[in-house]
Amino acid sequence: MKELNVALIGCGFMGKSHSNAYRSVPLFFPSAPAWPRMKVICGAPEEDVETSAKVFGWEEAAHNWEEVVTRDDIDVVDIVTPGWLHAPMAVKAAGAGKHVSCEKPIANTVEEAEAMTAAVEKAGVKNLASFNYRRVPAVALAKKLIEEGFVGRVFHWRAVYLQDWIVDPSFPLVWRLQKHLAGSGALGDLGAHIVDLARHLVGDIASVTGHSETFIKERPVLQAVAGGLGAAAGAEMGTVDVDDAVIWLAKFACGAIGTFEVTRFAPGRLNQNCFEINGSNGSIRFNLERFGELEVYNRSDPDYVKGWKTIQVTDASQPYMKAYWPGGHHIGWEHTFINSVHDFLSAIANNTEIYPNFRDGLMVNKVLAAVEKSAETGAWVNV
Questions:
Q1: Superfamily the domain 137-290+292-331+363-382 falls into
Q2: pTM for this model (two decimals)
Q3: Residue with more model confidence, 30 or 46
């Protein structure tokens, strides 16, 4: 078993999620070819990184990311900061010979994603675009079924990613609502996930046409972050310059057609990431709000039992589940990060490929950019 020294850049919501994953990998994957050593966590000067290090389980705390990503005692750099910092951090880490993981979307622009991809490929380091939903066991099972021909030729992809946390107009102007920091709104935050899932399960997207809307164009400036997605508002008002909701159509290279919708204005939908795939042999449906289930329909079933079936994804024979509990005992959202960390560190130790990598992340950015362009022009745009 190889030990790899990890530096985590960012100590907020995602920092907590990734820290939990690094702490948990040895517990659930005792035979893994590599385990992480949680060497250092790095945060902004105004953040209490020392407390984060103590609570999350890191040996050291730091404020200067440029020093951290070039340290001789660091093997892996994991970037979980706001999007505008991804490119400089990833490029510098790759230049220092570090393996790099980066939260989604990997960049705010196609140009930044191209620079990041070029840097890791030139350096020959392993790189992971952290689209954790690929590693939901039910999604991994869907991928397996598709590869085995369960669906047959794919005709349709339809996906929605719906949240409701900014419906209140008094919710403050957090960084995710500012284009120079986040790149886009719901499109990058939520759309990146379902575009990656579409590419993963159906294939490359050839062209798109879409529409975006910003419902609330001014919000109170941010006074304080309250943890997770919470925040406190100040008295002044600021401009929202990202999308609140986006819908688009897509044509896939394989001939399938798709629909996508993302919004953070869907009351009652806390985190509904849902997709359905229809093909010549059958259909598959997944809803993140029912994390441990995969719904399937097969046209070859006898008429007297034909219909949608719900598979409980808890058995050791199903993807990733052998690492966890006995059949019938469910795992949760946090385990997608544990699975991701295990796969990434294993790829480093075994010198094997890891997906989705930065080139996959670049392709997601290209799709998102095409959707933005289409929303501006009203035309179909090739990816």
A1: Dihydrodipicolinate Reductase; domain 2 (3.30.360.10)
A2: 0.96
A3: 30
